[in-house]
Amino acid sequence: MTPDLLLPFDDTEPTFAARPVWCGRGSAVIGRASIGTQAWLGDESVIRADGHDVVVGDRFWLGARSTLHIAAEMYPCIVGDRVTVGRDAVVHACTVGDDCVIEDACVVLDGSLIEDGVLLEAGSTVFPRTTLPAGFVCAGSPARPLRPLAPSELADRAERLREAAASDQASGPGDDFAIDPAVFVARTARLRGRVALAPGASVFFSCTLEAGLGPIVIGPNVNVQDNCALHTRADGLVIERDTTLGHNVTAADGRIGPGCLIGMGARLGPGTVVEADVLLAAGSATDPGQVLDSGWLWGGRPARALSRLDGDRRAMMARTVASYAAYGRAYRKLQAS
To answer: Which InterPro entries does this one have (predicted)?
Structure first.
């Protein structure tokens, strides 16, 4: 069975070592991806190799709404044999050894190394360029070794995640939107209700935008990356121009100002206001109604102001906006071809 969406990137098609491979509804595999034997890709999962390699070993399980991605021209994403990844997780531009278990809602960041036989507990964040040693249970934000693994613990946790993954069901397709030609909306994204997209906006693979009561308004050059989930239940959500939402961000009603970057796996509570020029670190969470003041790096659970933004961080945020504008143009052409 092939993914719902199988796309080349820079004229390179994904490759699969052998069948059987099980690919869930709404799953997407893109670009320089190589998948081993007996893979299981959950509903709405995304493997995106657009600018570097994703290499996945044998007997890999990827939970629903989870994302594997690279850092273009910097870091590949390398995953060993017999690795199980839970739901709503991000494995980004890192290396994962054999026989590892990465539980639900984890975020593994660029340049990290997870050695063989590691259990990463649910909700953990592996900071960039961290090494987690073999044979340990690791947890936290930042993730650290807690204790040695007990006998059969890895196998038990993997089996529990796989049972949950097998019973998880994707939602149905979203509304049939008439998309402005200056906007990219991935074929596997789901948009429902009053969703407004300004020119230059992009909504990537397996995102869910559900405007239940209030609208979702996305400004010019905003990029909403793979597996983000935006749900409104009250006044609505406004995301202003030149802002980036990283992979697997969750947000409810509120406002995100211009020129912001919301890091991978972040959770924004209802009523959160993010002022202009804010960087929210990956894996962070806000309390309902929290206000993130302009000009700061915020992080933690709940988020707190960590340091003033400097020129290097602002330049990185601007590069991300430009990079995803280019991705949006490229994918718009690929989907149309």
So the answer is: Hexapep, LbH_gamma_CA-like, Transf_Hexapept/Carb_Anhydrase, Trimer_LpxA-like_sf
Report the predicted TM-score, pTM, of the whole model to 2 decimal places.
Answer: 0.93
Q: Which residues of 85-117 are buried (b: 16+ CB within 10 A; e: fewer)?
A: bbbbbbbbbbbbbbbbbbbbbbbbbbbbbbbbb
* Strand 254-256 to 237-239 pairing: parallel
d(CA 335, CA 191) in angstroms, rounded, equals 17
Residue boundaries of the structural domains of the chain = 5-167, 184-336
Residue 142: cis peptide before it, omega within 30 degrees of 0? yes
Distant-in-sequence contacts of 273-281, Cβ < 8 A, 24+ apart? 276/240, 277/309, 277/314, 278/309, 279/309, 279/313, 279/317, 281/306
328 in helix, strand or coil? helix
Residue 54: count other Cβ atoms within 10 Å of its Cβ.
25
Fold designation for 5-167: UDP N-Acetylglucosamine Acyltransferase; domain 1 (2.160.10)
CB distance 202 to 325 below 8 Å:
yes
Per-residue pLDDT of the chain (337 residues; tens, 9 = 90+): 566 688 899 999 999 987 556 888 899 999 999 999 999 999 999 999 999 999 999 999 999 999 999 999 899 999 999 999 999 999 999 999 999 999 999 999 999 999 999 999 999 999 999 999 999 999 999 999 999 999 999 999 999 888 876 666 555 555 555 567 789 999 999 999 999 999 999 999 999 999 988 999 999 999 999 999 999 999 999 999 999 999 999 999 999 999 999 999 999 999 999 999 999 999 999 999 999 999 999 999 999 999 999 999 999 999 999 999 999 999 999 988 7
Judged on CB neighbours under 10 Å (0-12, 13-18, 19+), 73 is exposed
Number of helices and strands (H, E) in the chain?
2, 37
Domain formed by 184-336, architecture: 3 Solenoid (2.160)
Topology agreement, domain 5-167 and domain 184-336:
yes
Asked whether the beta carbons of 284 and 303 are under 8 A apart, the reply is: yes
Per DSSP bridges, beta strands 136-140 and 254-256 are: unpaired
Residue 307 corresponds to which tokens in the numbers above? Answer: 């340091």
